């Protein structure tokens, strides 16, 4: 397993619509394992393939706490089939928008259909943090970021900050 480089805002790849995978083969499993390793290394609780630059509909999630056994969840071609009308608010962050956190309101529960690491069809009913995490990651597959769910004022502020940071890093590399 390899820790891959993370794609960071304002990289335009984060706005890509990702393609479904045709089959869960060894190549896909290898990528899922690399994604998991990258997520644990960061550390984070969820990661979509586009965050390591691969525009495929693949997600890994693990909500286990540090002292608990790992509980990795592999979602291939995930599709949210139902969301509750009831909402909840969580403070979200994103490995592609490091060290920025903001409260986001989303449906409190959802149902997601996907293929697992073995290619078997699964459906999972989610609530709490898992429901938020699944929605955040499926958003990534459609080029949507959590900052799209906050006020325009806050979004513009964080986008500007990261654009400036990227320019500064670019100058440093060039220099
Ligand atoms: Zn994210």
From TrEMBL:
Domain of life: Bacteria
Binding site for Fe cation: 94, 136, 140
Catalytic residues (positions): 137
EC number(s) given by UniProt: 3.5.1.88
Cofactor(s) demanded: Fe(2+)
Keywords of this entry: Hydrolase, Iron, Metal-binding, Protein biosynthesis
Function: Removes the formyl group from the N-terminal Met of newly synthesized proteins. Requires at least a dipeptide for an efficient rate of reaction. N-terminal L-methionine is a prerequisite for activity but the enzyme has broad specificity at other positions.
This protein's record includes keyword Nucleotidyltransferase: no
Comment on bound cofactor: Binds 1 Fe(2+) ion.
GO molecular function, one term: peptide deformylase activity
Taxonomic lineage of the native organism: Bacteria, Pseudomonadati, Pseudomonadota, Alphaproteobacteria, Hyphomicrobiales
GO biological process terms, semicolon-separated: translation
Protein name (record): Peptide deformylase
UniProt record similarity statement: Belongs to the polypeptide deformylase family.
Catalytic activity annotation: N-terminal N-formyl-L-methionyl-[peptide] + H2O = N-terminal L-methionyl-[peptide] + formate
Native organism: Lutibaculum baratangense AMV1
């Amino acid at each position: 397993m390899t820790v891959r480089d993370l794609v960071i805002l304002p990289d335009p790849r984060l706005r890509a619509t990702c393609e479904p995978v045709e089959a869960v083969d060894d190549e896909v499993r290898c990528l899922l394992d690399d994604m998991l390793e990258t997520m644990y290394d960061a550390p984070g609780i969820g990661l979509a393939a586009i965050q390591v630059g691969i525009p495929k509909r693949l997600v890994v999630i693990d909500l286990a706490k540090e002292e608990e056994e790992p509980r990795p969840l592999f979602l291939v071609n995930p599709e949210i089939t139902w969301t509750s009308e009831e909402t909840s608010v969580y403070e979200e962050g994103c490995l592609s928008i490091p060290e920025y956190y903001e409260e986001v309101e989303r449906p409190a529960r959802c149902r997601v259909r996907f293929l697992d690491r073995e290619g078997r069809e699964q459906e999972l009913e989610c609530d709490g943090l898992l429901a938020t995490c699944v929605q955040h990651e499926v958003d990534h597959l459609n080029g949507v970021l959590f900052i799209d769910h906050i006020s325009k004022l806050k979004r513009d502020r964080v986008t500007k900050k990261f654009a400036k940071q990227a320019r500064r890093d670019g100058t440093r590399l060039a220099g």
